[in-house]
Design brief:
The chain is built from 10 helices and no strands. By secondary structure, the chain is an all-alpha fold.
Length: 251
C-alpha cells in the first residue's frame, strides 16, 4: 500500500509539473543567449572607438564566466529533458523504463548541438562587420523563436506568430543598419508584428482552405495580444497620416 500511494503521488506530481519543461528549456536557452550580449559588450569595448555598452556592463563583465554558463545549461537540461520525455512517451511512474533514458540522450544531444550552433552564431555575429551582421541577426532571431522545435512541437498558428516575430525584428534591424540614422528607434515593431501575423494567418487559411483557424481561440488570443502591444504605434501611424495636398514640398 505504501508503494502504491507513493506511485499515485508521484504520478500526480508529474502531471502537475510536466508543463514546466518549456520554462526550463527557455531558461537554459537564455543562459547561452544572454552570454552573447556580454560577449558583444566586451568586443565593442575592445575594438570600437565609441562603443554602445549596456548600463550594467561594468558590474557584470568580470563576473560572468563562459564555463559556468555551459555548466548550468547542462545541469538544467537534465530535469527539462526528463519532464519533456515523460510527456512525449506518455509515461507514468509504473511505465518508466530504459526507453526514457535513450530518448533523453537523443534529445539531449540535439538540444546541446542546437545551443552550440546558437553560441557559434552569436560569437561570429560579435566579430564580424556591422553590415554582415544583418544576415546573422536573422539567424539569431529565428533561433529564439524556432529553436525549441528541436525537442518539441507547435501548430500552424504558433508558426505564424513566430515567423511574424522574426520578420518584424529583422526588418527593424535592417532599417537600423542600412538607414544610418536614429529614427529606426521609432520603427513600429509591435504593430508590424501584428500586421505580419494577420497577413500570414490569412494566407495560410486561404491557401489550405482551413478558414476555421481564423476564428480559433488560439488565433484570437494571439491577435488580441499583438494588437494590444501595438495599439499605441497604430494610433501614432494614424495621427501621422495626412492628405497629400498638405505637403508643402514643391515638385
Amino acid at each position: 500500500m505504501v508503494s502504491l500511494d507513493f506511485g499515485d503521488r508521484l504520478d500526480k506530481s508529474l502531471s502537475s509539473f510536466t508543463i514546466n519543461h518549456d520554462a526550463v528549456f527557455a531558461f537554459i536557452f537564455w543562459c547561452i543567449y544572454e552570454y552573447g550580449y556580454v560577449d558583444n559588450d566586451i568586443i565593442a569595448e575592445t575594438f570600437e572607438q565609441k562603443p554602445t555598452l549596456s548600463a550594467t556592463y561594468q558590474n557584470y563583465k568580470n563576473r560572468v564566466k563562459l564555463l559556468q554558463v555551459w555548466l548550468w545549461a547542462i545541469i538544467l537540461a537534465i530535469p527539462g529533458l526528463f519532464l519533456l520525455e515523460v510527456i512525449k512517451l506518455q509515461l507514468t511512474p509504473k511505465t518508466i523504463n530504459l526507453s526514457l533514458l535513450s530518448s533523453m540522450g537523443l534529445d539531449g544531444v540535439l538540444w546541446l548541438t542546437f545551443l552550440s550552433v546558437v553560441f557559434g552564431c552569436f560569437w561570429s555575429y560579435n566579430r564580424l562587420d556591422k553590415q554582415t551582421r544583418i544576415w546573422l541577426y536573422f539567424c539569431l532571431q529565428a533561433s529564439k523563436c524556432f529553436g525549441f522545435l528541436i525537442v518539441t512541437t507547435t501548430n500552424s498558428i504558433g508558426i505564424m506568430l513566430f515567423a511574424s516575430q522574426v520578420l518584424a525584428r529583422w526588418i527593424a534591424y535592417i532599417v537600423y543598419r542600412v538607414g544610418k540614422h536614429t529614427e529606426w528607434m521609432e520603427f513600429p515593431g509591435e504593430f508590424f508584428r501584428c500586421f505580419l501575423f494577420t497577413f500570414l494567418i490569412i494566407s495560410v487559411a486561404l491557401g489550405t482552405g482551413e478558414l476555421s483557424i481564423l476564428l480559433s481561440w488560439q488565433t484570437l488570443v494571439i491577435f488580441a495580444w499583438c494588437a494590444y502591444r501595438g495599439r499605441r504605434q497604430f494610433v501614432n501611424i494614424c495621427r501621422q497620416a495626412y492628405p497629400i495636398y498638405k505637403d508643402k514640398t514643391l515638385v
